[in-house]
Specification:
This protein is mostly helical. The chain has a domain of 106 residues. It has 6 helices and 3 strands, in the order αβαβαβααα. Strands 1-2-3 form a 3-stranded parallel beta sheet. Helix 3 links the parallel strand 2 and strand 3. The mean pLDDT is 92.
């Protein structure tokens, strides 16, 4: 599930858990070496039209709980998709997960395409004169996401 729809965060966690269980069952049946994969799931998040929006803390707790219940520790990394979120919200959610205490047996990072590219494409706007601004926007977003993958991202970094 992604941010589209009216589903609750609880429903998203339930469905995500079911999907992860099916994925890892299939990988086991196919004798896939889990040590050689990266999992790229969506975050456990309430739908955009849900009457009870989930906080960053709610998303972090539900996502990490779901991962702990369904992702084997042999998997070296979990790299999240931005799932249609704004670039700042995707960064904030990743940071929230990495700030939680407790075991995270996998590296928790990002595999954002749209959330990395959109700011750069907007700044560049297909004009040669804007190339430097596009490069700076990409570098800025990558720096913020890198900090979020360590749990050290702050809102102040956005102004930098």
């Amino acid at each position: 599930m992604s941010g589209a729809g009216s589903h609750t965060i609880e429903r998203c966690e339930e469905v995500t858990g079911t999907v992860l269980h099916a994925v890892f069952s299939a990988l086991f049946e196919q004798h896939v070496a889990l040590e050689a994969i990266l999992l790229s799931p969506v975050l456990v998040i309430a739908g955009e039209d849900c009457p009870r929006p989930a906080s960053v803390q709610d998303v972090a707790v539900a996502t990490l709980r779901c991962l702990r219940r369904h992702v084997p520790t042999a998997v070296p990394g979990v790299v999240f998709l931005s799932g249609g979120q704004s670039e700042r919200m995707a960064t904030t959610h990743l940071n929230g997960i990495n700030q939680l205490s407790g075991p995270k047996p996998w590296k928790v990072s990002f595999s954002y395409g749209r959330a990395l590219q959109d700011p750069a494409l907007k700044a560049w706007h297909e004009r040669g004169a804007n190339l430097k601004m596009g490069q700076q926007a990409l570098q800025h977003r990558a720096r913020c996401n890198g900090a979020a993958s360590l749990g050290t991202y702050t809102d102040e970094m956005e102004a930098a």
